[in-house]
Structure formats: C-alpha cells, structure tokens
Amino acid sequence: MSTPLQKFVAEGIGTFALVFIGAGVVIVESHTGPSHLEVTDGKVGLVGIALAHGAILTAMIYAVGGASGGHFNPAVSFAAWLQQRLDANLLAGYVMAQLVAAVAAGVLLAVLFPDEMSLASLGTPTLAPRITPLKGILFEAVITFILVTAILLGTRKEGGAGSLAGLAIGGTLVAIILFAGPMTGAAANPARYLGPALVSGNLSEIAVYLFGPFAGACGAALLTGVMVRGRAIPSFDHEDAYEGHEEGAYDGAPEPATAEVHVVREKRAEAEADDRRPGRSGEDLRDPEDGYDDSGRGSGFWTPLWSDWWPKRRPALAPAGQGRRGRGSKHGPPEARLQRAYELFESGQFEVAASLAKPLLGEQDFSERARALLIVIEDELA
Fold this sequence. Notes:
The protein has helices spanning 4-31, 45-68, 74-82, 88-112, 116-119, 133-154, 165-184, 190-200, 206-229, 258-273, 303-309, 334-346, 350-357, 367-381. It is mainly alpha-helical. It folds into two domains: 4-229, Glycerol uptake facilitator protein; 258-381, no CATH class. α1 (4-31) packs parallel to α4 (88-112) and α6 (133-154) runs antiparallel to α7. The protein starts with a helix and ends with a helix.
C-alpha cells in the first residue's frame, strides 16, 4: 500500500504529463498553423490532438497509476470520494497535487512558447463561437459523465476491464475529444483547464469548466453506484474500494484489507462450524459487561485475531456509563474503539459495531482493520 505522500506525488506526475502534453499539442497545432504560418490548419489536427491526450493518459495510468489509482483529474477524485473509495483527507491531497502539477505544466509551456500566451492561451480549452456557456456546461457534463463512468466501471475488481482498463480509459478520452473538441475543447477535467488558464490569465469561462465536469462526475458516481450496488452511495467501504493500488493498471486498489477480511471471515466460519457464535447455541463467549484481563487478551474467538494486531498488554475498557470513553463511545483511543467494535460484532450488535468502526477509516494505523470489519458487517446485514 502506498503512503499518502507517494500517492500525491504520483497524482502530480500524472497530471503534469497530461496537462503538459494535452495543452502542448494544442499549442503546437496553433504554432504550426494559424498563429505563425497564417494557414487554417496546423500540423497536428483534431485527430492528432485526441490521440495525444489519450496516449499520455494511458501511459501515465500504467506508469504511476499503481501508486495512487491514477486519477489525474479532480472530477475523478471527487467521484471516487462520493463512492467512498477515497477518504476526505486523500481527496484534498489529490486535488491539491493535481492543481499544483497542472499550474507547473502551464508555467513550463509559457517558458517554451511565450508568444502563445496570447495567441493560443497556452492551450486553454475555449468555447466555439456558437456555443453558449449553458451548452458548454452541458457538453462538459456529458463527456465527463462518459469518462468517469468508464473509469468507475472499467476499474472494478469484478466485471471490470482488468489490465486493459488503461487502454479503455485512454480510448474513451480520445473519443470524447473527437466529439466535443471542436465545441468546447473537451477538457472533461478541471485541472486540464485551470493549469494553462491560470498561467495565461484566460479565466473568463471558468464556470463552464468547473461546474460541467463536477456535475458529470457526480452523476456518474451516483448512477454507477445504483447499477453496481443497487444504491447510489455505499453504506460502508466495499471490497472494490480504491484508496491505493499495488498491482495491475488503473485498478484503483486491490481489495482493501484483503488479508484482514480473509482472517475475519475465516474466524467467523470456524465459529459457525463450532456453533460458538452468540445466539447460535445460547452460549455467551464473553460477558458483555466484562473488560479485558490484565494480559490484554479477550476471552472470545477473536482472541487469536487480536493477538496478532495489538501488543500483549492493552488497557481495559471502561464499563458502561463511566465517562466519554465508556463502552460504545465514539471517543477515546482508536485501539479501544476498535476492540469494542469487535466485541459488539461478536455479540451480534452489527450496526453499533459499524458506527464505532467507520470513523476509524481515517486512522492510518487502524483503517485496514476497520475496513475489514465493516465489509464483514455489511455481509451480515445484506
């Protein structure tokens, strides 16, 4: 699993490459055509511009997408956050890295093509003469919806495009540029617009290229959620969540907490086979009012699982009603909250256990274990 810093750097590299090549090829089209040679068309053409965008996106997906999921687009990160594939802290870091990288690409293009600051606005997407801002928003919303849908569905662990996802996503970008490029520039990406626009000072149409892509990404996240899970927003992080990624191309992430989920399910299966779970044979594995003994080990079938995750000695939990850190409280040390969540799960109080475990997704040292528990809880509630 990549660290947050590694993810941010990967997002920065990918976004820089996408904006530098994407805006750069538009500049070259102008530089070899109307702005310098006084001819209608440059040497690149619409097809060349579309292929350049698609090729660099595909290359960056396979090159650095394994570290971060390869968003390179604030609208994609926003959609991932809506589907609870990305937590809020990572969302903020992703967007910041993407915007900084986009501006850096714009600055470098300004150094390489200073005269194109005014002649081609550094490759900033612009509306065609007969395209109103409202139509522009609609164009950008629709093409972003198509792109984000391809990403969210193509990168799923089951039913996705697998190792061909990068090619499918790059091909989608080529198609939408061929369609909407002459109308709006087909940004489908706020960073692709903001990078050259901020450096060139051409921000007159900023609303089109912010509202359109984010609206399209929101629609894609909600509708693909309904299609895959039967509801727009998942109740907990799902097994196809992508918060990072260690193998494959643009697949977002491997199944979160894979090892932990396996262990939790294995223990559950063993308990069911032995008829040891609370309520199955009438035997309580642990008195719900008991804390933990001095050795820090509980007395239920989770003990072998916990012993690998926590130090030998752990503080006992306070009995119910004794202050903010009492049993079932959402306050207190993350370790104690996760211990209590497992207790509640073992006693069949799934929803209360989930309410304690879900806030721990933002705790770096506990997120994988909390996610594993939430996945198993959702299986129980399904």
